[in-house]
Design goal:
The structure is a single chain. The strands form four sheets. The protein has a five-stranded antiparallel sheet with strand order 1-2-3-4-5, sandwiched between helices. It is globular. Helix content is about 55%, strand content about 10%. By secondary structure, the protein is α+β, with helices and mostly antiparallel strands.
Length: about 600
């Protein structure tokens, strides 16, 4: 949805383009378009096939022709025909619109741009062009000049083949101060543009510029669409810094970029798994070993933005960071980033303090592939880390191991695994299993208390309602579907139910948007409203629109769903005020009586609702 949102908020927003997009939406048959990529078979009202976004044995990818949505019940990916093309082709919204227009033989309208728009467009084009020309310059220096002889020998000594040098367009920056600047000046680039591109730096004297990268192996960095946006430069000796990266520019944001993603995303999508390494050389070595679903995080800081990009294509992320202390600490930080996103996480344990590049050169590709196949589960890695990074010969050391392992054990979902590790720690440390279990219970209690109470302040009701019950979720989804099926029930729902009573975060967003569109007399097309939603909320809407729902007495169904949602909300309020009362009474605060009074009032409201 990123490209979709950029399109809406960018320079394309005018009546002609709104009409163009609407024409595409109306003219496109989502089943026909998706069938060009995925074999579909009709079953009931919907069409079904194997999801193109993750590996699966049983078809869980559903397409509803009349609603214009797709949804995968396996990986929870959904959207309209634009979203499908964006995700599958790895392109922006407008590129998807142009692709769809070409399939439907609908002309793309031209838009008159303002002077500012033209200037921004020219500057971005120049930044991309400067980086491409710099890449070609560095590559030529490596492969075709005497400058690159030492660099070629260095790459050969690292086991990087000529084929890999071509595939990754590796290059060499000559040691002279301004070779690149002169070459690009001859191609019409002004000095300030080269500085903006991160390729040059202004001289301290204030007169002229000089090359940022000199006497380094050059690795071009591409964005998810394969456009060169920056570089990483590596020295060939022991000088520092070992790596020098392009600075942040209008087209290069290190937090957003995964090195090698443009080459790996198809393999990631097909396998449903991504392998993340730290550095450029690691990534190149891993790709040369035949593992094509690997990317590099451009250093040790794996960011939430990078995690979100991978989450669109993979259900599992395996980290193969260096096995030294810094690499393992980076792994722990990365695990914290990814775990909250609900992805399956494993860790490739590389022996001898090696990084993937070193390990492959020493032991070969098959040995590394075996490490990947035997990657550790998240809990296994966390417990091993607690043991292997601590001297547990003393009582203090044993306590330290337990303190490191307890959070991982407390947060793990698999009780069988937890019990096995408790037994292992008990035997290894000569500590009673009951003592370890006590520490886990204490940790869980502290975490729960921290979530609910902060030094006697009010308990957060959101903590009690983050995960709505299945019955409530179904009721909210079906109520949304009914409002799209019959818009006339929307004002009735608005009077009977407030948005605040909706428990599901994405359902709340959808209903709020639907109410707003109705009140403003805007289009109530689910396809058009999906444009306004976040990616996660749009996926939820897709799920709702492909649901098989039996429509009979819509008015009665609406009443039933509203009643279920209201009762669930009131029951949550009862829990909240009861918990609040208990906590206040424990602290000797007389306000607990007010909470009990409010609890009774809500019980009376629930009784009346049951009687209605």
């Amino acid at each position: 949805m990123d490209g979709l949102l950029v399109f809406k908020g960018g320079n394309m927003k005018d009546a002609a383009y709104d009409e163009f997009i609407d024409k595409l939406r109306v003219a496109s048959d989502i089943v026909s378009i998706i069938s060009e990529y995925v074999p579909l078979k009709k079953s009931g009202r919907n069409y079904w096939g194997s999801c193109p976004f993750h590996h699966e044995k049983t078809a869980s990818f559903s397409v509803t022709q009349d609603k214009g949505f797709f949804y995968c019940f396996g990986c929870q990916t959904g959207g309209n025909v634009f979203n499908f093309l964006m995700r599958l082709e790895n392109i922006s919204f407008f590129e998807a619109a142009k692709l769809l227009a070409s399939k439907l033989n609908i002309p793309v309208p031209e838009k008159e741009k303002s002077d500012h728009d033209k200037q921004v467009e020219r500057e971005l084009a120049n930044l991309y062009r400067a980086n491409v020309l710099a890449r070609d310059f560095f590559h030529s220096c490596l492969t075709k000049t005497n400058y690159g002889k030492i660099a070629r020998e260095y790459l050969s000594s690292r086991g990087i083949s000529e084929q890999a040098q071509v595939e990754f367009q590796l290059g060499f920056a000559p040691p002279a101060w301004d070779k690149l600047a002169i070459a690009l000046a001859e191609r019409g680039f002004a000095a300030d543009m080269l500085v903006k591109a991160g390729l040059s730096l202004p001289r301290s004297s204030g007169n002229g510029i000089y090359d940022r990268f000199r006497d380094r192996i050059m690795i071009p960095i591409s964005d998810h669409q394969g456009r060169v946006v920056g570089f990483g430069g590596r020295v060939m000796d022991g000088s520092q810094p070992k790596y020098l990266n392009s600075p942040e520019t209008a087209i290069f944001n290190k937090r957003q970029i995964l090195f090698g993603f443009d080459k790996a995303y198809q393999s990631i999508r097909q396998s449903g798994k991504a392998i993340v390494v730290e550095g450029y050389m690691d990534l190149i070595a891993v790709h040369m070993s035949g593992i094509k679903n690997a990317v590099a995080s451009l250093g040790t800081a794996f960011t939430p933005e990078q995690a979100k990009r991978l989450a669109r294509y993979a259900g599992e992320i395996d980290f193969a960071y260096d096995s030294d202390a810094a690499g393992q600490n980076a792994t722990l930080r990365a695990l914290t980033t990814v775990r909250s996103m609900g992805l399956n996480v494993r860790v490739v344990a590389i022996p001898d303090g090696k990084d993937p590049d070193d390990y492959i050169r020493k032991h070969g590709t098959e040995a590394f592939q075996a490490l990947v196949s035997n990657a550790l589960a998240l809990l296994d890695f966390q417990v091993r880390q607690a043991i292997e990074t601590t001297d547990y010969s003393s009582l203090d050391g044993k306590v330290s191991v337990i303190s490191k392992a307890v959070p991982a054990l407390a947060e793990a979902d698999n009780a069988v695994e937890v019990n096995a590790y408790i037994a292992k720690l008990s035997e290894l440390l000569a500590i009673d299993e009951g003592a370890i279990r006590t520490e886990i219970r204490k940790y869980k209690a502290i975490v729960k208390k921290d979530k609910n109470v902060n030094r006697g302040k009010a308990i957060s009701i959101t903590g009690l309602t983050q995960q709505p019950a299945t019955a409530v979720t179904v009721a909210e989804r079906q109520l949304i579907r009914l409002m799209f099926e019959d818009n006339s029930v929307i004002p009735y729902v608005q009077t009977e139910l407030s948005v605040a009573e909706i428990q599901g975060e994405h359902c709340k967003t959808i209903i709020n948007l639907l109410f707003d569109a109705y009140n403003r007399e805007k289009s109530l097309s689910a396809e058009l409203l999906a444009v306004e939603l976040t990616e996660a909320a749009a996926n939820e809407l897709s799920n709702i629109m492909v649901m098989d729902i039996q429509l009979s007495d819509i008015a009665r169904m609406v009443d039933d769903f509203v009643k279920k949602i209201r009762l669930a909300g009131l029951n949550n309020k009862i829990k909240y005020h009861s918990t609040q009362a208990d906590e206040l009474e424990r602290m000797g605060d007389s306000r607990y009586l007010q909470e009990l009074t409010e609890s009774q009032r809500i019980k009376d409201e629930i009784r009346k609702l049951h009687q209605s």
